[in-house]
Amino acid sequence: MMWKKSILILAGISLIALLTLPVYAQTSNEELARRLIQSYENVKSFLQGIMGNLDDETASKVEDAIAKADPLIEEANSLLSSGDYESAVEKAREALSVIRDVLKEIKDVDVIREGGRLRIAIGRLSSAVARIERVIQALENRGVDTTNFTSQLEEVKSLLEEAKSLLKSGDLDGAREKIEEAVNELRSLYSGVRGAAKEHLNLTKEKVLNRVKRIERASERCVVRLDMIYKKLVRENRTEDAEKVLKLKNSIEKTLLSLKRHVENGRRFLALEDVRQLFRYLIICRRMGA
Fold this sequence. Notes:
Elements: H1 2-7, H2 29-49, H3 56-82, H4 85-105, H5 110-141, H6 147-168, H7 172-200, H8 205-235, H9 239-264, H10 268-288
Helix pairs in contact: 2-3, 2-4, 3-4, 5-6, 5-7, 6-7, 8-9, 8-10, 9-10
C-alpha cells in the first residue's frame, strides 16, 4: 500500500510523540492539567492494549512504569478537584515522565514501532483531509454541488476517528484496517475533487506556476531573514523566542518542499493550498519583522 511505503521512512519514531500536547500561552493550568492527564490515560490504554504482544521482560517494564505513574495521576486528579491546578500539572508531568522513560527504553520493540507508524499515517491522512475539505469549500463557493464529496469526506473522517480509537486501545490490526479503508476512500474522493477543481476553479498550469514562483521567492527570502533572527536570539539567550522562530522557519521549508512535490506531480489544487499556507506564514513573518 502507498501509505505504508511513505510511513516506513519514519519507522524509528515511537509512541513518545503521543505525549506531546499543544500548549499555548493562553491555556490555563486547569486546562493543561486536564490535557496532560488525558494524554497519560491515552498512552496507558495503548500500552495495556498491546501488553499481550510484548515479551515478559518488556511487559514487566511497562507494568512497573504504570504502577509507578498511576499514583501520580491519582494525585493530579485530586489536586485538580481541589483547585490546585499548578500542582496538578506538576504531578501529571511527573507521571508522563515515567511513561516517557519506559517508552524510550522499549522504542525498538516491533509493536511500539508499528504503533508509531500507524499514528503517523493517521496524522498524514488527517492533513490530506483538511486540504481536500478546503477545496470542497471553494467549489461550494462557486455554486458546485458537492454533496457526494462531502459525504465521502465524512466517511473518511469517521474511519480515521475509528482508527484513532482502536490505536489508543492497542488494537493495531483494527487500526491498520481502518486506515487502509480510509486510504481507499480518500483516493476515490481525491480523484473526484481534482476533476471538479480543474473544471470549476480555473486551475490552469500557467496560473499555478505564476503563483508558485512569486510565493517561492518571497518564502525563500523569509527563510533567510528568519535564520538571521534565530541566530541573533540565540546569542541573546532568548531561547523561547528563538524556538518559535525556528519552528516557523522549519514549517516554511517543509511547505516549500510539499509545494515542489505537488507541482512536479501535477497536483495543481494541492499546490495552491501550499501557496495559501505559505502566504499565511509570510504574514506571521512580517509580524515578526522578518
